[in-house]
């Protein structure tokens, strides 16, 4: 499970050279379905999450993005009616973007066709990430999904430039894990408890400590039954 977008180094600044720099604090809305129809954002720093929500308040994570990714570009290649009404992008950390209008963005893409091709490549990777999440949701049990998500966060914390919360400590709640995996909070709590019993993670107030990244990765890839046999404490 790879909830963090990956993208090849691509300098998109020529598309946004007329844009306005905007800074968002942690937990702030960058855009939703309605505002995406007006603006496109180039993220220059920070981490954000894109999710889809329902009128009943349920939420499902689609992916996490960081510096170098673009928010709102889909409307340059599609129609507003193709966007879900519950789509929104929220900051996880402090985020800075360069914002331009959809009209300016379309004009810039016409001037720099090679960058437009790069944007299509980024869009493909978004689709690939969502397909992988669907595969995990359909064929992996809750413990395997939780392990894969926690390992992805651990790997992201080690990435150069990522905001670190502490050595092997992840600032993530059970509810956030449930949102990301599409499972209930109760089943997530049970899965995290199994990982703790196996000596793979340790629970702290508001934090999850990764004790054995290799075992966590194995559980996420192979399922809990196989990996727990080799990682459980005696």
UniProtKB/TrEMBL annotation:
Domain of life of the source: Bacteria
Keyword Transcription on entry: yes
GO molecular function, one term: DNA binding
Signal peptide: none
UniProt keyword annotations, A-Z: DNA-binding, Transcription, Transcription regulation
Database matches in InterPro entries: cNMP-bd_dom (IPR000595), cNMP-bd_dom_sf (IPR018490), HTH_CRP (IPR012318), RmlC-like_jellyroll (IPR014710), WH_DNA-bd_sf (IPR036390)
Domain HTH crp-type: 140-214
One GO process term, biological-process aspect: regulation of DNA-templated transcription
Annotated protein name in UniProt: CRP-like cAMP-binding protein
């Amino acid at each position: 499970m790879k909830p963090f977008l990956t993208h090849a180094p691509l300098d998109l600044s020529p598309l946004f050279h007329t844009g306005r720099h905007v800074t968002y604090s942690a937990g702030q809305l960058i855009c939703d379905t309605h505002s995406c129809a007006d603006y496109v954002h180039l993220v220059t720093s920070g981490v954000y999450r894109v999710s889809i929500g329902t009128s009943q308040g349920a939420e499902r994570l689609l992916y996490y993005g960081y510096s170098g990714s673009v928010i709102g570009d889909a409307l340059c290649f599609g129609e507003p009616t193709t966007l879900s009404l519950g789509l929104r992008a929220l900051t996880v950390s402090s985020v800075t973007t360069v914002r331009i209008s959809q009209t300016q963005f379309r004009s810039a893409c016409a001037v720099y066709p090679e960058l437009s091709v790069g944007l299509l490549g980024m869009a493909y990777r978004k689709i690939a990430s969502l397909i992988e999440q669907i595969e995990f949701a359909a064929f992996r049990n809750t413990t395997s999904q939780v392990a894969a998500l926690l390992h992805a966060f651990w790997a992201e914390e080690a990435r150069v430039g990522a905001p670190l919360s502490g050595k092997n400590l992840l600032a993530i709640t059970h509810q956030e894990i449930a949102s990301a995996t599409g499972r209930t909070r109760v089943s997530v709590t049970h899965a995290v408890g199994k990982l703790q019993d196996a000596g793979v993670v340790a629970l702290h107030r508001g934090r999850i400590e990764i004790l054995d990244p290799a075992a966590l990765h194995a559980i996420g890839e192979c399922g809990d039954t196989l990996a727990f046999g080799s990682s459980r404490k005696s």
